[in-house]
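Consider the following assembly input.
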Amino acid sequence: MRRLRFRRISWGTVFWVALVWVLLWGDFHPGNIFAGALIGIVVQEVLPLPRVPYSGRIHPFYLFKLVVRFFVDLFVASFQLAAIALNPRRLPRGAVIGVQTRSASDLYLTLTAQITTLVPGSVVVEAIRSNGMLYVHFIDVDFQGGIEAMKQGVLATEERVMRAIASDEELEQAGITR
Amino acid sequence: MNWDTIADVVAAICLLLGSAFTLAAGIGVLRFRDLLSRIHAGAKPQVVGVILALIGLGLRLRSASVIATLILVGLFQLITAPVSASFVARAAYRTGTFDPDELGVDELTEDLARARNPDDEG
């Protein structure tokens, strides 16, 4: 059995849990902050999660670009999806498309899949960790611009994620020039 | 015309627009034919709808503790919605509760078939 006791506590996570706790109560009483921090420590001891290997570096400019582009995509695609739903003349024809992502990291694959699923019109149906394949369901490929454009869209999302938080070596390995 | 009025008007627009997105999502769930398409309608315009509703509420209520809670709600909505959508889609795919004929292109079924029978090309 794996030893789970006396793990190193991540203080970042303690801070995050304490912040959520305080926000849930809605006031910055010292007792609330203390209780939140205590819960953060207890949760990590009782329900330990595997560490996420991360060797990248955060680039604020590209992170900002990623977030802005994400919200733009979110709203544009929401209008698109509403238009598809409300168009009485045609029903969408979906497609499941396999996209070969370029990074070797679980973290970037997960973030790319999360963003792809959040943006309307695409849902990740299957993510294969060993070879980095993402299988994405698109609701109406013809309306959205064709299969090749959709593939490029997912790869562009991955590129934005990696530019924002990956290290130079990881970018080079993935074949993305900065 | 003062700032409170402007905030109220923007709040009303956000709330109405958010409701419209949620309505479109509901119509989509009714109209779309298969489960995978319905996930799109059910999970996503609803995210934007909720975010707009939260912005509207924040602008109308204008209290720091309420806004803090609203930000938290929005954040967790963004974190959890894709996870549930992907899991339902994956379960639908694996249990075969969708109609493959509804799909124009289906590269996952092709790749899975190839993984099972490596000799069988096509």
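Helices of chain B lie at 3-31, 35-43, 45-61, 64-95, 107-116. Ask yourself how this observation constrains the way the partners meet.
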